[in-house]
Write a structure and sequence with these properties.
The complex is a heterodimer of chains A (262) and B (276).
Chain A: E1 2-10, E2 16-25, E3 30-34, H1 41-49, E4 56-61, E5 64-65, E6 73-76, H2 88-92, H3 101-114, H4 130-142, E7 148-152, H5 160-177, E8 180-185, H6 188-194, E9 197-202, E10 207-213, H7 225-243, H8 248-261
Helix pairs in contact in A: 4-5, 6-7
Chain B: H1 27-46, H2 58-70, H3 73-105, H4 107-122, H5 129-136, H6 140-164, H7 168-176, H8 181-217, H9 224-233, H10 237-262, H11 272-275
Helix pairs in contact in B: 2-10, 3-4, 3-6, 3-8, 3-9, 5-6, 6-8, 7-8, 8-9, 8-10, 9-10
The chains are: A alpha/beta (262), B mainly alpha (276).
């Protein structure tokens, strides 16, 4: 459904963010991209969204190549990024401008209800807590019914309790329309709580290190042995990805300067 | 459809929030200082403590104002001055907004235009006066040109800076929702630059009043600036002070008008000034 083929990304400043990343995601699947900082997971997400273009390779959604932001793809940023001059309701309806006002209002009301913010529509974004704002930003992306939802560490700025609650909210929201969900995170627990699959990435340059299925039923019990085992597997892969000497070309590059100079 | 969590019903609605910090709402406080000073001086004058030949007491200024108003002279002068400021400010601000938007949004336009405009900005606006008089004559056009030049630069700088300061992350939201260039400008850039643009317009208008005095002092047969010169030449300090008082009131009122007209557009702002 969502297919990434041989994605390469080299930034103009020479930074090699991604090296030959390929990944296939089935419809309705939830995939967590896990990795240490600098492993290119955010870059990967931005390539899929069409906000940035790959140096090589291509992204396809249902066979259609993605070059620019596409109506079938929704994006939730790391920060809520609500527009401060629009009310909460107007923010949620931001991507629905093409609909007649009545229909738009109904969709927005329904969305507010779904995230437990009924009655908050007339408020300004500045009046929301961090968790509330992020919920609004998630439904803003979901209300247009995208086939693919991309999320870039959406809960990383929240405290642990809010984060766990919002993860449960997210799954409930996801169940309503079951979009394909690609989620970037550095939190192993988050990957185990949400994902059908954790793709662990390795830094410098960013590559896929391991692809770990998490075949647990939902709702997930965070204390069950299966959950703990899944966390351990992801964590082990993450440790491996960080301790592994970086791949071929760059390993020489990174070691030789200091070595040969002396 | 599932309701996830219940939070207490929101109680603050948009309609109710406008009443705090309404523009001019605290104007009573603002009047305390000038009124107290006026009363004090009046009292000192009545008690014979001050020699009032060069600084007439408030009562005499009020009397002069009243006479000017009764004869209809004051209205003529005020209208002449306001017309000049209005036309000059309108012209300068319009061009300033246009060029500021151009150089703010296009790197090419910035590289081509901005250095020249900055060099022109370095010229004191009054230096243009002889040229404007040669070109446009001694009547209205040269005065309005001077005011327009004075208003142009703060507006131009403000708008250009506002566009440059728009948060890249917010613009990216517009891109993620596939807004066209035009819609991006209307739905993201315009509201984002509005607060800074209003500040720029206010400082432009302030300079407009500054330059109208310069223009009218240099030669005019009506206008508040003319009252100033006339008062100096005929030794009427009460008339000078009456004109100055008019400037204070008009300038403040014009600024308040901009604030009041734009306040509904800015009620979303989350800033220090609003919480006070």
């Amino acid at each position: 459904m969502l297919s990434l083929a041989h994605l390469d990304k080299v930034y103009p400043n020479g930074a090699h963010a991604l090296d030959d990343v390929s990944l296939d995601v089935e419809a309705g699947e939830i995939v967590a991209l896990v990795g240490g900082s600098g492993c290119g997971k955010t870059t990967l997400l931005r390539l899929v969204s069409g906000l940035e273009a790959p140096t090589h390779g291509e992204v396809r959604v249902d066979g259609e190549a993605i070059f620019a932001p596409h109506p079938a793809i929704g994006f939730v940023f790391q920060e809520p990024r609500l527009l401060p001059w629009l009310s909460v309701a107007e923010n949620i309806g931001f991507g629905l401008e093409h609909l007649p006002p009545g229909e738009r209002r109904d969709l927005v009301e329904e969305a507010l209800l779904k995230v437990g913010l009924a009655g908050y529509g007339a408020r300004w974004p500045r009046e929301l807590s961090g968790g509330q704002a992020q919920r609004v930003s998630i439904v803003r992306a979901l209300v247009t019914r995208p086939k693919v939802l991309l999320m870039d560490e959406p809960f990383s700025a929240l405290d642990a309790l809010t984060r766990a609650t919002l993860q449960d909210h997210l799954i409930a929201l996801w169940e309503a329309s079951q979009p394909t969900l690609l989620l970037v995170t550095h939190d192993v627990e988050e990957a185990a709580a949400l994902a059908d699959r954790a793709v662990v990435m390795q830094p410098r340059p960013g590559r896929v290190f391991a692809d770990i299925p998490i075949p647990l039923p939902r709702p997930r019990d965070r204390l069950s042995p299966g959950f703990v085992e899944a966390k351990r597997a992801v964590l082990a892969a993450l440790d491996g990805s960080l301790s592994q000497p970086s791949g071929g070309k760059s390993s020489k590059g990174s070691q030789s300067p200091a070595g040969s100079w002396w | 459809m599932q309701t996830l969590s219940q939070e207490p019903k929101a109680s603050t609605r948009r309609g109710q929030r406008a009443d705090s910090a309404r523009p001019g709402g605290g104007f009573v406080y603002g009047l305390i200082l000038p009124l107290a000073a006026a009363l004090l001086y009046e009292g000192a004058f009545r008690a014979g403590l001050v020699q009032a030949r060069l600084l007439p007491p408030p009562s005499r200024i009020a009397e002069t104002l009243w006479k000017l108003a009764a004869s209809g002279e004051l209205a003529t002068h005020v209208i002449a001055t306001l017309l000049r400021v209005g036309l000059g400010f309108g012209l300068g601000a319009a061009v300033g907004v246009f060029l500021g938007a151009l150089t703010g949004s296009s790197a090419l336009a910035r590289r081509l235009l901005d250095p020249t405009l900055q060099a022109l900005r370095a010229i004191p606006s009054l230096a243009w006066v002889p040229l404007f008089i040669l070109w446009l004559g001694i009547f209205e056009p040269s005065k309005i040109a001077l005011i327009a030049v004075g208003c142009f630069f703060p507006v131009y700088l403000g708008v250009m800076g506002a566009i440059a300061n728009v948060d890249r992350k917010i613009v990216e939201v517009g891109r993620a929702f596939r807004l066209s260039r035009l819609k991006l400008a209307r739905r993201i850039l315009l509201p984002a630059i509005l607060p800074d643009t209003i500040v720029a317009l206010r400082s432009g208008l302030g300079l407009g009043f500054m330059f109208v005095v310069a223009a009218e002092i240099m030669g005019a047969s009506e206008g508040l600036g003319y009252l100033l010169v006339d008062g100096q030449q005929l030794g009427k300090p009460d008339q000078i002070l009456a004109a100055i008082l008019c400037f204070a009131v008009l300038g403040k009122a014009a600024d308040w008008l901009i604030l009041a007209a734009t306040r509904p557009l800015l009620s979303w702002q989350d800033s220090f000034a609003r919480s006070g």
